[in-house]
Specification:
Elements: E1 3-6, H1 13-24, E2 27-30, H2 31-40, H3 44-55, H4 61-72, E3 81-84, H5 90-102, E4 109-114, H6 117-125, E5 127-129, E6 136-138, H7 165-179, H8 181-188, E7 192-196, H9 201-213
Parallel strand pairs: 1-3, 1-4, 2-3, 4-7
Antiparallel strand pairs: 5-6
The protein binds BIS(adenosine)-5'-pentaphosphate and magnesium ion.
Residues 7, 9-15, 31-32, 35, 52-53, 56, 58-59, 64, 85-88, 92, 123-124, 126-127, 136-138, 141-142, 162, 171, 200-201, 204 line the site of BIS(adenosine)-5'-pentaphosphate.
Length: 215
């Protein structure tokens, strides 16, 4: 099964993707995490993406499509994959569909995580993440056991630069203008399942598992 998690910044895509990929046996591919790893490694792709990410706008479609198809085409993805943060424009979705069709594959389900802007803003401004293993925390909703330290590896937690309030506002504008049209795109293809993502992490996990298992 190939799944897309769609939703605004801070909807909980990363939080849920880790759990869902484990229970469904899928490879988790987060375009944002891949870009941040490229930046960390100071690759050409990372340098190219940096300014777009820091401004809260989208990296160009052709760059993202090439990067994501490289990961989707690897043997680890052959048992099914879970996309988090990709596609994010209609052009990316069309490019993905075309390239998957050439391999005889398709997207089976798009889980659209619906949550208000005010809620996601609260989530993003309280987010901390582990720079070593990527585990995501929130200072109120999912605090680490020891303040400022990752529960799993003990590393010092850090904030994402694009979680500054001004950048969050821009990321939300970008989402409404460029990504929201994907709801109609996938609805027309009969694969869209919208779920309420405003509840607790556990409630959202239950809803996602229900819609994925029903397919
Ligand atoms: P990306 O990294 O994908 O960021 P995003 O989509 O803006 O989403 P986030 O990762 O911020 O949020 P999330 O939904 O994963 O939420 P999380 O689980 O962390 O992209 C970053 C940038 O890269 C983009 O701006 C763009 O420049 C570029 N980029 C990436 N993909 C691209 C593409 N396809 N095309 C072009 N450019 C691209 O949770 C957030 C917080 O909420 C955490 O603190 C968490 O603990 C908390 N939380 C989660 N769930 C709940 C809950 N149910 N209740 C309470 N708190 C919760
Ligand atoms: Mg994320």
């Amino acid at each position: 099964m190939n799944v897309v998690l769609l939703g605004p910044p801070g909807a909980g895509k990363g939080t849920q993707a880790v759990k869902l990929a484990r229970t469904l046996g899928l490879l988790h591919l987060s375009s944002g995490d891949i870009l941040r790893a490229e930046r960390q490694a100071k690759t050409q792709l990372g340098r190219q993406a940096q300014d777009f990410m820091d401004r809260g706008v989208l990296v160009p479609d052709d760059v993202i499509l090439t990067m994501m198809m490289d990961h989707i085409s690897r043997p680890e993805a052959s048992g099914g994959f879970l996309l988090d943060g990709f596609p994010r424009t209609v052009a990316q979705a069309e490019g993905l569909d075309e390239r998957l069709a050439r391999k005889g594959a398709r997207i089976d389900i798009v889980a659209n995580m619906v949550v208000e802007d005010a809620d996601v803003t609260r989530r993003l401004t309280g987010r901390w993440s582990c720079p070593v293993d990527g585990r995501i925390y929130h200072e109120i909703y999912s605090p680490p056991k020891a303040a400022g330290r990752c529960d799993d590896c003990g590393a010092a937690l850090s904030r994402r630069k694009d979680d500054e309030p001004d950048v969050v506002r821009q990321r939300l504008r970008t989402y409404h203008e460029e990504t929201e049209p994907l709801e109609a795109y996938y609805k027309a293809r009969g694969v869209l399942e919208s779920i309420d993502a405003s509840g607790t992490v556990e409630e959202v996990t239950d809803s996602l598992q229900r819609v994925c298992r029903a397919r």
